[in-house]
Amino acid sequence: MKEEKFKVINFIRELIVYTDTYLENFPKKDIEIKNRIKNLSYDLLEIAYKANISKEKKASYIDEIISKAKVIDFLLNLCYDKQIINLKRYTKFGQKLDDIVKYSIGWQKTIYSNLDNRA
Fold first, then answer.
1. What tens digit of pLDDT does each residue of 37-54 get?
2. What is the CATH classification number for the domain harbouring 106?
3. Among 105, 110, 40, 104, which Cα is nearest to 75's?
């Protein structure tokens, strides 16, 4: 379980680095979307650290990670539709978000499995 937690954080870190690198040339009229994506990415990191610390709220923090990752995906899809980012970048972002969601779900299953084993 410990390994998954850190994998999620590493995937979020990769997303932040990728976001900083590949979302620099945004049209002024769409700069709010860029800022929202960046802020949500940093929010993901903060929530992942909270999930690592909190025993009582861990599952709800992981739910929040998954939901924020899906909002980022929606915003990136909007950027792709508006032709702000190309298909290659959209796909790369999608892979990073898929990794975050996949490992978060695995982390959550581990938590629920541990709870079931105690009962």
1. 999 999 999 999 999 888
2. 1.20.1440.60
3. 40
